[in-house]
Amino acid sequence: MYLEAILSRQKKPVNNSDYPDHAIERIARCILPDILAYFESEEGQQEFKEWKALQEAMKEKKTDTK
């Protein structure tokens, strides 16, 4: 019940493209398993760690310049 309340309050994504929502959802459902498999793989985990470190470095640099 609590999770449903949270999900219902979240903003729905707005589709500003020429493609209908059902087409985007169909493509997303097709590629989601591959995306999940990649990020669960060793290579995907390593790339995520590198990305996360880069994001932290950029955040620190941004706060240093203020």
Strand and helix map with partners:
Layout: H1 2-9, H2 21-40, H3 42-64
Helix pairs in contact: 2-3
- Cα-to-Cα separation, first versus last residue: 43 Å
Q: Describe the main β-sheet briefly.
A: none
Strand content: under 5%
Unreliably modeled segments: none
| Rg value | 18 Å
Number of helices: 3
The helix/strand series, from N terminus to C terminus, equals HHH
Estimated helix fraction: over 70%
Q: What structural class do helix, strand and pairing data support?
A: mainly alpha
Label the overall shape: extended
How many domains? The number is 1
The average pLDDT score comes to: 86
Name the features.
66 residues, mainly alpha, 3 helices, 77% helix
What is this entry, summarized?
This protein has helices at 2-9, 21-40, 42-64.
Structure description:
- With 66 residues, this protein is mainly α.
- The chain has one domain (18-64).
- Helices cover 77% and strands 0% of the residues.
- It is extended and about 45 Å long.
